[in-house]
Amino acid sequence: MSSKKSTKKNQKNKKQKNNKKWRTILTILVFIGLFAFAGFYIHSYPVADDIKLVATQPKALKAKKKVAEKDIWGYPFAKCYTKKIKYLSGQRYGQTDICRRTYPKKSYFHDGWDFGWSEVGNKAAVLAVHPGTVKKIAYVQGLDYYVWVVSDDGYVEIYQEAFLNRSDISVKVGQKLKLGQKIGRLTDSHLHLGITKTSKDYITKKGHPYKNYYKNNGTWLNPMTIITTSLEKQAEVKEYNQKADSYNIKATSYNKNLAAKKAKLKAEERKHLYHYVKGFIK
Length: 282
Fold this sequence. Notes:
Blueprint: H1 2-43, H2 48-55, H3 79-82, E1 94-95, E2 109-110, E3 113-116, H4 117-120, E4 125-127, E5 132-140, E6 144-150, E7 155-163, E8 176-177, E9 182-185, E10 190-197, H5 223-271, H6 273-281
Organism: Lactobacillus equicursoris 66c
Keywords: Coiled coil, Membrane, Transmembrane, Transmembrane helix
GO molecular function, one term: metalloendopeptidase activity
């Protein structure tokens, strides 16, 4: 009888030991699983989208363009901007159908551009076509009163045959002019605009700015070509700057949102387990 009791007790003890063993194994397996999951979880952080976000660079803003002063020109009359004017041959620069000089030989060369009062308006304001300083105001037969302007970039602008009286001129010698500033008012039949450069031989022995007016030798330049080329360039720069402004507004908004997302991600990372154990797992 005592032998049977002893056997049962041994079996019970053996069963308890086995149960304890399996509980230990199970506990170890659970811990291993938890550590494996934690390791995988930590190693897989941050996720690909977060890594991509951190690596994303803000958009660079576009710088605005400027037109150099030497390239800033405009029309001498406001109506030239709004009215399509058909200029006659005699008004245009270069070879024309009007004889300008007969002795010692005929010349049909026109050294500037004429703007008639019938096209731009009688007593219309004569405007500076380029920034510069008034060098001289004088009267000479054939030119009437003229305004001689010298620009810092080496260009020279002559406004002549437009002013019947000195009182029709609003500027003074030594005065600095801005583009579009009023020089005077048109009281004669037309304005003759001549453009040359300080490096050219354009001053007569008597000190008037019209030497070589009959020669197509490069002394006098085409005013309309200079003005229209400048206006096209100004329009291109204006269009570019408008697009740049629009782009910069969108880019600034994008950069602001990107910075906010990165700040939020950084704040979340500080709360994440990865933040505390990343030093041990690398």
